[in-house]
Task: structure prediction
Amino acid sequence: MAQASARDAECLGVSCFGGVGGEWPKDMRVGLLDSTLREGEQTPGVSFTVEQKLEIARLLDEIGVAMIEAGHPSVAPDVREAVRRIIGMKRDGIIRRAEIIAHSRAVKADIEEAASLEPDRVAIFYGVSDIHLRYKHRRSREEALATIAEMVEYARQHGVRVRFTAEDATRADYEFLVEAVRTARDAGADRVSIADTVGIATPYGVRRLFESLRRDVPGVEFDIHAHNDLGMAVANSLAAAEAGATIIHVTVGGLGERAGIAPLEVIAVALKRHYGLDVVDLKGVVRLARLVERYSGVPITPLAPVVGENVFTHKAGVHVAGVLSNPETYEAYPPEWVGRSRDYTIDKYTGRKALRARLERLGVHVSEEELMAILRRIKERSEARWLRDEDLLEIAEEVTGRTLRLRPPEHIEALVTVRCDSNIYTTSVARRLSLIPGVDEVIEVTGENDILLRVRARNPVELNQIVEAIRSVRGVSSTYTMLVLRKLGTGSGDRRKTGNKREKT
Ligand SMILES: [Zn+2]
Result:
C-alpha cells in the first residue's frame, strides 16, 4: 500500500485549493483492489474469455494493484476456471504481488468451492440494509448476524483469510451495521468492505460513516466499494480513504453493474494528485484501459477522465495560448504522468499561437501575414468540425503558394494480386514470381485470385517495370495492383485511417 509522502511543494496537496481545503490526513495509507474480472464482468453485455482474464490479471499485477478480485467461482464453470488459473499464476510467481480474492455468497457450498481453489482470501457478501434483509434474504436481523458469524467462521476453518462485504451498507441502520461488522470481525474476518451498493452516498456521509465505524469497531481494516449511479463513486472512494479506508475497490474504465464503480485510472491519478500517493504505475493505465476496452467491447468515451481521447486536447484560443505559455493554466495534472501528450484542435476556435505551434510541429514556417491569412481561411471553414493536419497543410499551400505537403515516402509498397491460367500449377507460377527483383513476399491465396505479392519499388517507373515482369511470367492471366498508403498498427489504439489507390493493369 502506498504511504503518503512529503508532497511536492510546487503542485501537490492542499495549496492547489488556495488553502481552503484543510490538511489532508498525513497518515493516509491506501491500496487498490481491482474487480474488473468480477464486478467488471457483471457489466451488461460483457463476458471475458479465460485467456483474456489471465492477461488482464497479469497486467493488473504488473502495474501494482494490491488485490485482484478474480471472480465468483460458483457462478459458472469458466469463471471457476479463470479463478483457478489466476491463483495458479500467483503460486507460480507469474503474479508476484497482488493478493488474489475469490468471491462467495454467504452459503456453505459457495464458500467450499471458493476455498478449495486456495485463494489468498475469500470475500463473503451479505446484504445488511432492512430492504435487503426483508426482500432479498427474507431474514430477521438476528438471523442475519447468525449467518454472518457462521459463514465467516466456516471459511476461516478452511485456512483462508476472509473479507466480509456488508452489502448495501450505506442504507443500513447504523447500529445494526456496527453489529454486523463486529460479528464478522469476531468470527475471524480481518477486512470488511463497506459497499455503497446503489451509489446513493455522498462524500460527506461516507467520510462520517468511516470515521464512526473505525471508532466503533477497532481491530479490522475497511474497504470502500462505491457504485457510480449518481456519478459519485470517485468522490465517495476518496472520502472513505480520507477517513481511514485502506482499500478502494475499482475496475478498469469503471465497469460494473448499472453505472459501474470507481474507475481504476481516475482513482489512481486522483490519489497521486491530491495526496501524493503512488498506488500503481500510472504509465500502465492507458494500455490497460485499451486492453479492457477491446476485450469488454465497452468503448472509452472521448470525455473519459485520464484515458479519453479528448482529455488532453485544448480547443479555445484563450486556453491554448495559456497552455502554450504554461500547461498548468488549464491542466489538472501533466499528461506525461499517464504517458500521454497534450494536443490542440485546429478549427474556428483556434488562435494564432496554437496555429503557429501546430504548423511548426508539421515543419512549416510562415510569416505573421501568412499565419493570419491561414487563420482566416480556417474560420471560414466553420462547417468543418475538426481540421486534420492534411487539411491544414492544404490551406497553408493555398495561402503561401509553396509546396508544404510532407515528402513522399522513400519507396513505394504495393500489393499485387495474380490470377493464373486454369490449366497451370499455381505453385510453379509462384516460384517463378518469387525470383523477380522487387517482389518481397509471395503468398498463395484462395478466392478469386491465386497469388498475392508484396512488392517494393523506389519510384512509379520501377513499380511499372516490376508489374510488367510479373505479367510476362508464363501462366499469369491477369494482375491487379494496390498501392499501400499506410499500415494500421494493431492493438495499440492506433486510429489512423488506411486506404488504397487502385490501378487496373
Ligand atoms: Zn458492486
Remarks:
- Residues 5-19, 491-505 have pLDDT under 50 and may be disordered.
- The CA atoms of residues 348 and 376 lie 9 Å apart.
- Residues 39, 225, 227, 256-257, 261 surround zinc ion (CB under 6 Å).
